[in-house]
Amino acid sequence: MKKTWYRILLWMALSSGILVILLLVLATILKPSKNIEGTVNRKIALDKLKQMQVESADINSKAFFDYFDKTLSCSVINTKWLISDKGEIIYAKGIMSQSTPLHSNIYGFEDIQSRGLISAVECNIDSVQKRIMLVAASLRCEGEHNDMIGHLVMPLKTSSNVLVGFVGVAYDLDDLKPPFQNYYFIIIALIFCFLLYWLSLPLWVYFDCRENNNKYILWALFVLIGNIPALIAYLISNRK
Question: Mind listing the pLDDT tens digit for each residue in 77-96?
């Protein structure tokens, strides 16, 4: 019976230890990545923005709001802003719109860092470019989700090249590496094998030491805490 336990526990420790290493490598390879800025969703959002056309200077109307909402409707765009040429938010819809209330002025939302960046390049950009940068900085002011979403800003001009406002969107960043469907089963198996490996060694010490040493419980606890180094110390001590 004793030899049977020896074989089972030692082989259990060895096989589960190897499985832990293999599953850890597999979990690392298949680990779902954070959303990373790619080109797919950005191109979709940009193409939608390019479809926007302005026929008159009056963009603060329900008809234009409906047109605006319909033109920018797609699965990757989660928030849309329509901003007047004076910087007033006249339309906002989507999950990020709460940080930019309607009828507030967009130019007051930018943070100190963005203001400093714009100031550093101000001498090399024209007034429209500066306002575009201010709008973009203000739309990103919420900050908490900027690692998961991207932003695009485009000036709205009539066919006669008159600036009437700005349109901004927040879109979902590309998930370039979708999670493996059985990834969490791998994690569960990894935890199970790790526990099996970690507990089998002190159990082996317990049965090995029980008949020859009255400190078998202490040795088992020692190996439970110290694992391989403690097991080596036990084997060395047991040979004396």
Answer: 999 999 998 889 999 998 88
Mean pLDDT for the stretch of residues 89-117: 82
Phi then psi dihedrals of residue 141, to 5 deg:
-65, -25
Total structural domains in the chain? 2
Residue-range definition of the domain harbouring residue 155: 40-172
The answer on 194 and 138 residing in a single domain is no
Q: Which residue has the tokens 């090399």?
A: 124
82 strand-pairing partners: 91, 167
Assess whether 208 and 157 both reside in one domain: no
Which of 125, 140, 172 terminates a domain? The answer is 172
227 has a pLDDT exceeding 60: yes
Q: What is the pLDDT of residues 37-51, one digit of tens each?
A: 567 888 999 999 999
User: Tokens 């409906």 appear where?
Assistant: 66
> Mutual orientation of helices 216-239 and 183-210 as an angle, nearest 10°?
70
Residues 167 and 83 in one domain: yes
pTM, full prediction: 0.58
For residue 96, which of 81, 79, 108 has the smallest C-alpha distance? 79
